[in-house]
TrEMBL record:
<feature type="signal peptide">
    <location>
        <begin position="1"/>
        <end position="23"/>
    </location>
</feature>
<dbReference type="InterPro" id="IPR012938">
    <property type="entry name" value="Glc/Sorbosone_DH"/>
</dbReference>
<dbReference type="InterPro" id="IPR011042">
    <property type="entry name" value="6-blade_b-propeller_TolB-like"/>
</dbReference>
<feature type="compositionally biased region" description="Basic and acidic residues">
    <location>
        <begin position="370"/>
        <end position="387"/>
    </location>
</feature>
<feature type="compositionally biased region" description="Low complexity">
    <location>
        <begin position="22"/>
        <end position="42"/>
    </location>
</feature>
<protein>
    <submittedName>
        <fullName>Glucose/arabinose dehydrogenase</fullName>
    </submittedName>
</protein>
<feature type="region of interest" description="Disordered">
    <location>
        <begin position="22"/>
        <end position="60"/>
    </location>
</feature>
<dbReference type="InterPro" id="IPR011041">
    <property type="entry name" value="Quinoprot_gluc/sorb_DH_b-prop"/>
</dbReference>
<dbReference type="Pfam" id="PF07995">
    <property type="entry name" value="GSDH"/>
</dbReference>
<feature type="region of interest" description="Disordered">
    <location>
        <begin position="365"/>
        <end position="387"/>
    </location>
</feature>
<feature type="compositionally biased region" description="Polar residues">
    <location>
        <begin position="43"/>
        <end position="53"/>
    </location>
</feature>
<feature type="domain" description="Glucose/Sorbosone dehydrogenase">
    <location>
        <begin position="71"/>
        <end position="371"/>
    </location>
</feature>
<keyword id="KW-0732">Signal</keyword>
Amino acid sequence: MRHRAVTAVLAAAALLLTAGCSSDDGGSPDTSGSASPSDTAARSSSPGPTAQETPPAKGSVKVVRTVATGLSTPWGLAPLPGGDLLVSSRDEATITRVDAKTGEKTELGEVPGVSPSGEGGLLGIALSPEYASDHMIYAYFTSASDNRVVRLIHDEEKPVGERLGAPDTVFRGIPKGVVHNGGRIAFGPDRMLYVGTGESGDTGLSQDKESLGGKILRLTPEGEPAPGNPFPDSPVYSYGHRNVQGLAWDGRQRLFASEFGQNTWDELNAIKPGDNYGWPEAEGRSGEGGFHDPIDQWSTDEASPSGIAHAEGSIWMAGLRGERLWRIPLKGTEASADPQAFLKGEFGRLRTVVPAGDDRLWLVTSNTDGRGDPQDGDDRILELRVS
């Protein structure tokens, strides 16, 4: 277990006094202390009916091993076809290959044009659906002027440190800020590119369907609005979001997204094309017509969620400020039982969780991001077995 000093407790108390908090984990963007998770969940859940195909109400998590240590500000994770892992560094703007068996790290290179600041930098990464033939890595990053998506060729024949080709900009113009830069990208079952964005601290952008901020975007691999999007000639897939950093699909190709709240409720949402998820008029469940209420909600000190993954009939949600991994069992697009928290405080801040096949997950910590309490070995990638 990670032991917190008294000063960390005082820092956490100071965070609670910060009105209108705007960071990616509910705290002041300038603090380096990690907020202490509370012992009692202050959230509202909506357990649904059970069915034979519904996962058990109670699950389990076992840490199988530590895959790699010594990572600096890791953010995105992309498993390669052969089993190794690619991880992005937010502040160093590098992509590193990790041998999934030995943990050996090989830097592929630095992504040019990245302007790290606050919560911005090199964020999510994803492999092209045609990676076996085109060797393309997609990356979301903060530049000097905006947030954008680029693609780079991964050339394994080149010398170490030079294996990334020049970036080809696929999509640009996403609003940037010191906070709320979104950053998660993922190719869906339809082979389209989904992009989670933040409102960059300008809450009015979320309800503006002409803005790219506070949205989930759906693009072709070339960066055009994807066919079948809900708004004509628009990349916008859903709107009314505050800061989306988690995207995952279940076995029936239904999309789920995690979202940072401000002072009250973090959210897990089932995404329906064209729907309005309420921010800034609604935070958490509102019951108001016109807004899509979340599947479940958490107080910001218990979650502040970033990445999510679907495995074993549940959504698994990594918590930054909450320093825990949440399991949300599903029946369809509803929670079938109360969420469970695992690994509470054991590894500090949790940033990214990715399926690793069958009942396994990759989990990335985030203690070197300026808000954590780094310990020896941080940051790290863990392999989990879940049920």
